Amino acid sequence: MDISNCAYCQKGELVAAFSYFALELKTSNVYIFKEQSHYGRLIIAHKKHVSEIVELSDEERNDFFKDINLIAKAMHLAFNPQKINYGAYGDTGHHLHFHLVPKYKDEYEWGGVFEMNPKRKFATDEECQEIANKLKEALKKLA
After folding, report:
1. What residues does each domain of the chain span?
2. Residue 136: pLDDT over 80
3. How many helices (H) and strands (E) does the chain have?
4. Are 40 and 79 in contact (CB under 8 A)?
5. pLDDT of residue 112
6. Which CATH number fits domain 7-142: 3.30.428.10, 3.40.50.1980, 3.40.640.10, 3.40.630.10?
7. What is the pLDDT of residue 100?
8. pTM score, two decimals?
9. 60-67 contact pairs (CB < 8 A, 24+)
10. What is the DSSP letter of 29?
11. At residue 48, does pLDDT exceed 90?
């Protein structure tokens, strides 16, 4: 499988164009999505280059969902959203990843599906690092 154009496999500039590396979990890497219309929005990408969840073994799939569950718990602790929306796309970027989008009742898009890239608020690297630090602190509390 060709990974030369895969942002999550190549890392570096490809993934940095839209995200900021936050931390590594058992089966996945967590990135802060630079478009932060929803404070704390992130992407969790499987470490293995697969396009579909059905390409994972049962154990790999279960471990990946454990990572998603863990980071969602950390998001609730760190950011106190009323809801987290989960989106798995990849029509053009064929690498299994989920968007975790915290939703807040009195803010943008409450009650509707989140917009993929609304271009309303872009976080600096420093702001992304602050979000990553909050997630790491929440993960410590959950351990």
Report:
1. 7-142
2. yes
3. 4, 5
4. yes
5. 81
6. 3.30.428.10
7. 97
8. 0.93
9. 60/27, 63/26, 63/27, 64/27, 64/28, 64/96, 66/26, 66/27, 67/25, 67/26, 67/27, 67/28
10. E
11. yes
